[in-house]
């Protein structure tokens, strides 16, 4: 049975729980940590995100506990006759909460929001090593249509 999931915009008090979720990611290689010493970095990022009109950070809760997080960006490009799209980023569910439908609930939330905003496209990227995540996204209707490139600067 799937738990009842509440999705809401993240609050500053959620930042330690979000950092702790990221710290469980062994594949991402982002250097995330649940250390109190890292908290100022996460708080600075939280403030930058909340100051943006085009970015939103969310949390998913089960029984009042933050168990997952994701971020959305709405961007407008000249291609597609000036259309707008949603990018879903930093989708993470705590390992103890995986397999319960929480990720699917978060992605459906994003799709519904994009539809209400009249956006033409919802897109996301996933680390090439995350084969289970790729199958998950394909089950939800996403198609692997592009190849992404990244260049780490620091």
Summarize the structure in words:
- This protein is α+β, with helices and mostly antiparallel strands and 154 residues long.
- It has a domain at 5-10 and 54-139: Aminopeptidase.
- It contains 5 helices and 5 strands, in the order βααββαβαβα.
- It has helices spanning 15-23, 39-51, 79-82, 102-116, 131-139, and strands at residues 5-9, 55-62, 65-76, 84-93, 121-124.
- Strand 2 and strand 3 form a beta hairpin.
- The chain is globular, with a radius of gyration of 16 Å.
- The chain starts with a strand and ends in a 15-residue tail after the last helix.
- The model has no long low-confidence stretch (mean pLDDT 92).
The count of β-strands is 5
User: Based on helices, strands and strand pairing, what is the structural class?
Assistant: alpha+beta
Approximately what portion of the residues adopt beta-strand conformation?
25-35%
Order of helices and strands: EHHEEHEHEH
- Biggest sheet, spatial arrangement of strands: 1-2-3-4-5
At the fourth CATH level, what is the homologous superfamily of the domain at 5-10 and 54-139?
Gcn5-related N-acetyltransferase (GNAT)
Which CATH class of the domain at 5-10 and 54-139 is shown? Alpha Beta
In terms of per-residue confidence, which ranges show pLDDT below 50 for 5 or more consecutive residues? none
The averaged pLDDT comes out at 92
CATH architecture of the domain at 5-10 and 54-139: 3-Layer(aba) Sandwich
End-to-end span in angstroms? Answer: 43 Å
Shape: globular
Helix content: 25-40%
CATH T-level topology of the domain at 5-10 and 54-139: Aminopeptidase
Rg measurement, Å: 16 Å
Biggest β-sheet strands, sense, barrel: 5 strands, mixed
Count of alpha/pi helices: 5
């Amino acid at each position: 049975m799937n738990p009842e999931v509440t999705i809401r915009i993240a609050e500053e008090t959620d930042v330690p729980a979000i950092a702790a979720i990221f710290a469980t990611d062994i594949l991402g290689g982002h250097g995330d940590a649940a250390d109190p010493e890292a908290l100022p970095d996460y708080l600075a990022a939280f403030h930058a995100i909340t100051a943006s009109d085009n970015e939103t950070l969310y949390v998913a809760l089960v029984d009042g506990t933050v168990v997952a997080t994701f971020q959305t960006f709405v961007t407008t490009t000249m291609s597609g006759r000036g259309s707008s799209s949603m990018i879903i980023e930093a989708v993470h569910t705590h390992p103890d909460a995986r397999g319960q439908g929480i990720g699917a609930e978060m992605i459906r939330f994003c799709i519904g929001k994009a539809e209400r905003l009249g956006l033409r496209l919802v897109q996301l990227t996933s680390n090439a090593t995350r084969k289970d995540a790729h199958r998950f996204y394909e089950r939800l209707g996403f198609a692997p249509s592009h190849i992404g490139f990244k260049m780490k600067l620091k």
